[in-house]
Amino acid sequence: MKAVVIDRFGGTQNLRLADVPLPQPGPGQVRVHVAFAGVNPADWKDMEGLVAGFYEVSFPHILGFDAAGVVDAVGPGVSGFAPGDPVFTTSDHGDGLAGSWAEYLLVSAPRLALVPAGLDLASAAAVPIAALTANQALLAPQRGNLQAGQRVLIHGASGGVGSFAVQLAALAGARVATTCSAANLAYVGELGSELALDYRDPDFPQRLRDWSGEGLDLIVDAVGGDTLPERLQLLRRGGRLVSIATLVADGDVAAETAQARSMGREKIYAIMDADRAGEELAALGARIAAGELRLPPVQVIDLQDAVNAVELVRSGHVRGKLVLRVCGDGF
Length: 331
Ligand SMILES: NC(=O)c1ccc[n+]([C@@H]2O[C@H](COP(=O)([O-])OP(=O)(O)OC[C@H]3O[C@@H](n4cnc5c(N)ncnc54)[C@H](OP(=O)(O)O)[C@@H]3O)[C@@H](O)[C@H]2O)c1
Fold this sequence. Notes:
Layout: E1 2-6, E2 16-19, E3 29-39, H1 41-48, E4 61-62, E5 66-74, E6 86-90, E7 104-108, E8 113-114, H2 121-125, H3 128-139, E9 151-155, H4 160-171, E10 175-180, H5 185-191, E11 195-198, H6 204-212, E12 216-221, E13 235-244, H7 253-262, E14 266-270, H8 278-289, E15 298-302, H9 306-315, E16 321-325
Parallel strand pairs: 9-10, 9-12, 10-11, 12-13, 13-14, 15-16
Antiparallel strand pairs: 1-2, 1-4, 3-5, 3-7, 3-16, 5-6, 6-8
Helix pairs in contact: 3-4
The structure holds NADP nicotinamide-adenine-dinucleotide phosphate.
NADP nicotinamide-adenine-dinucleotide phosphate binds at residues 40-42, 129-130, 133, 155-156, 158-162, 179-181, 184, 199, 222-224, 227, 244-247, 271-272, 313, 316-319.
């Protein structure tokens, strides 16, 4: 099968379209014929070896953290999925297995969900990593635990994670403020942001303070590093800062967690948990199919142009999502 691989860590010059063996599903695994694969910031970090400490890597290394396609074969012990089913999923790449930028992907069955009627496969491939990350960061009790009526800031609201987070927060009954660049202010407003602020405006923290009164209940930081000034001070006492781990610019996690605690706030680092996320993904897909949750703009790029996709996502300024056309939807 064809796959986008690297033989060493480094820049996009190392990406190549290779012929690699067709993987055989083992117990509990499903082989998916990949129609479209998601493009995520984790891909360039993976390519450069910046996240290699998190899982075993063997070369040639197939990139890709999520996908949509059709079930091709199921391994022993798998129930609920059969050849021909349209599915979307995170890959097992973060556990050291092959990624999704390939014609076929082996994935653990509990990660998979059926694509609901009405959702095309290119759109479905844009969903898993971004929507699951947003959903868990906002709503999981040990993370954002967002409640109706609370005031939340989504920092980095126009990207993949942010586009879902703004909507999910508004749907949960929260009042939503956002940051993004000036060009995306109207876009995040359409997603449900009550107060949209340009992060290049030096007054934006003050405008947040004016809006939030006693302080924000929750901040979901989808950018990281030092891009959000005064973040702990923007929270009310008892408020939470959920930092979606960038895995490359997370600072001194222990020190910042302790600093937040000393100020009566909580700082929580969130890494998406996808091991058994199939049901959560199915629920998100149902909300999309029902028109409750809208898809961000999805740009489709051919697998042969993976270099372009990686460079775009590495720029850090994609509105919505990029997906790679692997086999396309002409099954
Ligand atoms: N640990 C995990 O489990 C996990 C899972 C998913 C994602 N992540 C991480 O979460 C981050 C976001 O992922 P993503 O998929 O949403 O990325 P993305 O689609 O590339 O979006 C990035 C967004 O950030 C905005 N942005 C850039 N600089 C900003 C700043 N200084 N202030 C506010 N917004 C800024 C950009 O908006 P403009 O274009 O308007 O500038 C862009 O829309 C990445 O670091 C990713 O690796 C981690």
